[in-house]
Specification:
With 232 residues, the chain is an alpha/beta fold. It has 8 helices and 7 strands; from the N terminus they run E-H-E-H-H-H-E-H-E-H-E-E-H-E-H. It binds adenosine monophosphate.
């Protein structure tokens, strides 16, 4: 018997795929939450920034094309990024679902993703918008300190070391990353806002955007994300 077609002529989706897009400013806890989703639903986290950095490190053709744009802080072209996402989503570990971090970044990429999922019969992506107050973000990021020996991360406000300024394990003096200063952070936030606003409007108008209050403690945020993703 042939496949049953729906009234609009498209094939009904063959399986349920959990397609998740994470939106959230630097310091919003996006990476931490993506990791929790990945563990709970056993689906891979896909970061386009990480894939591109890997390609640059390995000097692949893609890496050579992307390197200059990345180093000058610009976005890599839509064609290039859409290509790597399409290839990655074709891998077997994505067949039950995936979490995208850092993609889409433009409307063109968002439309590409929607069309790709439709062609695959994978349903629509759910977009989580992790919202955190600007002043909390500044505290999270300006308070961040790292141990230069073991890489442990502290936060002088939220997770301070036992002895101020020194690593609990290595006793080494903690350092602050160059890009964790308030001025740089405010700039990164403005860039993020400008870049993401059109995407938020796009997904909201299509009923695919889920606002998540990221001001709670990490476990509370995870819980509210799980309830969004488990519904329907
Ligand atoms: P990220 O780690 O997500 O901040 O990405 C690091 C860099 O990779 C960005 O500054 C861009 O140059 C590039 N990149 C990552 N994702 C994208 C994307 N979706 N579109 C365009 N460029 C991207």
């Amino acid at each position: 018997m042939g496949a049953v077609q729906s009234r609009d002529g498209s094939l009904p989706s063959r399986k349920k795929v959990l397609a998740v897009v994470m939106l959230g400013a630097p310091g919003s806890g996006k990476g931490t939450q993506a990791h929790q989703i990945s563990r709970r639903f056993v689906i891979p986290e896909i970061s386009t920034g990480e894939m591109l950095r890997e390609a640059v490190k390995k000097h692949t053709k893609l890496g050579k094309q992307a390197q200059q744009m990345m180093e000058s802080g610009q976005l890599v072209t839509d064609g290039l990024v859409c290509g790597i996402v399409q290839d990655r989503l074709a891998e077997p570990d994505c067949s039950r679902g995936f979490i995208l971090d850092g993609f889409p970044r433009t409307l063109e990429q968002a439309r590409f993703l929607g069309d790709l999922l439709k062609r695959k019969g994978w349903g629509r992506e759910r977009v989580l918008n992790l919202r955190v107050d600007q002043e909390s973000l500044i505290r999270r990021l300006t308070g961040r300190r790292m141990c230069p020996v073991c890489g442990a991360i502290y936060n002088i406000y939220l997770a301070p070391p036992k002895q101020p300024g020194f690593c609990d394990r290595e006793c080494a003096a903690l350092i602050q990353r160059n890009d964790d200063t308030e001025q740089v952070i405010r700039r990164r936030m403005m860039d993020y806002e400008r870049q993401t606003r059109p995407l938020i409007e796009f997904y909201r108008s299509k009923g695919q955007l889920y606002d998540v209050d990221g001001n709670m403690d990490p476990a509370g945020v995870t819980e509210s994300i799980f309830s969004v993703l488990s519904a329907a």
